[in-house]
Design goal:
By secondary structure, the chain is mainly alpha-helical. The chain is built from 20 helices and seven strands. A hairpin with a 5-residue loop joins strand 1 and strand 2.
Length: about 450
């Protein structure tokens, strides 16, 4: 359990209780962040105050500095309190990186620069699955990433509750992309939930229906209640208020109400998680709506960027970022700052993937030319082989290649069987379907050298 900060009424005014000689050691605490630029919650802050100083007095100075710097979000995420935040250096850096690297225009420019538009697009297509899989795993799905990708690519029916969860999340990600131009409404939120959880355990999830009771709580791993959502009474009105705020234009940088799209998307994520409008599946809906808003604001590269993949690696810290906000006067800075740290790493991973893709294409083309394989491959075979080489765990079926390369089923089958004949791919039968995969790289080169 985290240590909740004292409320302002519990803090003595140091200006009245301290002498002028006692004040100087507290001056460094009169800032929103510490010397390293960290926006510390009280739970961590208290351990960084020297033992000869009062933690509460030091906290008083920090809270006063924050009060003068905070901005209102104008979005109601609590019946009694409205969220506020302070723009930190991390937020500014993340917003800059997102603007530079993840807009649809930036993605299009990268494709043209590489000169392999179809190849890059096909390779990045594999990343679309990652958020759906990781978001499900974050919620407890035990299915491995490899099995999940195989299920999605083959379009086979899920065999377990966990696999149904992944398919539901996969459908949600496509839904928010398709609906990105629509305004946010309660009905859209309900439809998103129904698509994501329908058919998993309808008695538990009640797909597309807002909760009617107050028996929904968030517990930690020890069974302690760490979050009691606001009452079901007034839920419709609060969500309508949220929708109104989301649909309000905050893009004018000259306006006092300006909010960067990334910050706003993170706030939507928080608000849904905080309200917990459904009996279950709220986290998935919250993360999907983050993506929906980023898509709406034309950050198209987020189709290929998974935040849940990193959130699941530090699920405890993810949960704490909610609690720090909730227990400190709805100070959204904690949650926004943490999400920015995750997004910055996720964007870096995406850029690294793209860079490796480019390098792999160049290296592969050189090998193709020098080995003589190049002349033996058709254009479609080069694309499929390049995708497989860059993502060695990827499996292929004729149906999958047919869809991705926009060709006939027979052409797709010919492409794959040709790769098998060239000793580049292996194939095996699963039920009535042939599954193709890349052979070991060393084996491929050995066969061609000989």
């Amino acid at each position: 359990m985290i240590k909740r900060p004292p409320v302002k009424a519990e803090l003595a005014n140091p200006w009245a209780s301290l002498s002028s000689d006692q004040l100087p050691p507290y001056i460094p605490f009169a800032a929103p962040v510490d010397a390293r630029g960290r926006y510390l919650p009280y739970d961590e802050f208290r351990h960084r105050v020297p033992k000869d100083l009062s933690v509460d007095i030091a906290w008083f100075f920090t809270k006063e500095a924050r009060a003068h710097a905070k901005q209102s979000l104008f979005g109601q995420v609590d019946p009694k309190r409205k969220g506020t935040y302070i723009t930190t250096n991390l937020m500014q850096k993340t917003a800059t990186i997102v603007d530079q690297s993840t807009t649809s225009a930036a993605l299009e420019w990268a494709n043209k620069k590489v000169g392999e538009g179809l190849n890059i697009a096909y390779m990045l297509e594999d990343l679309i699955e990652d958020e759906a899989i990781s978001s499900s795993q974050l919620e407890g799905a035990a299915t491995t990433t490899l099995v999940a990708k195989e299920m999605i690519k083959r379009k086979r029916e899920p065999r377990s509750m966990d696999e149904r969860m992944i398919i539901g999340n996969f459908k949600m990600m496509h839904f928010v992309w398709d609906k990105r131009l629509l305004p946010l409404t309660a009905d859209l939120i309900k439809e998103l939930h129904a698509i994501g959880v329908g058919g998993i355990d309808d008695g538990k999830y009640t797909p597309g229906i807002f909760r009617l009771t107050d028996n929904v709580v968030v517990e930690d791993s020890d069974g302690n209640i760490v979050h009691q959502p606001p009452p079901a009474t007034g839920l419709d009105e609060r969500l309508q208020s949220l929708c109104n705020w989301v649909n309000t234009d905050h893009d004018d940088i000259e306006s006092q109400s300006y909010i960067h799209s990334l910050v706003k998307a993170i706030c939507i994520h928080f608000a849904i998680g905080y309200e917990h409008p459904f009996n279950d599946g709220n986290g998935r809906v919250a993360r999907a709506l983050f993506y929906w808003f980023m898509f709406k604001k034309d950050y198209g590269a987020f189709r290929y960027i998974s935040i849940s993949n990193l959130l699941k690696e530090a699920a405890t810290q993810y949960g704490k970022s909610y609690l720090y906000t909730e227990t400190d006067e709805m100070d959204m800075t904690y949650f926004i700052d943490y999400q920015c740290s995750v997004i910055m790493r996720a964007v870096a991973a995406f850029k690294n993937h793209c860079q490796k893709t480019v390098e792999s294409i160049e290296s592969f083309d050189t090998w193709l030319f020098n080995s003589g394989v190049y002349g033996k491959l058709s254009g479609k075979q080069r694309i499929v082989f390049q995708v497989a080489k860059s993502s060695p765990n990827t499996i292929f079926t004729a149906r999958y290649v047919e869809e991705k390369l926009h060709c006939s089923y027979n052409t797709a089958a010919t492409v794959l069987n040709g790769l098998v004949e060239l000793n580049l791919f292996d194939k095996h039968k699963d039920g009535k379907e042939w599954i193709y995969s890349l052979r070991d790289k060393q084996e491929i080169q050995k066969n061609w050298i000989s």
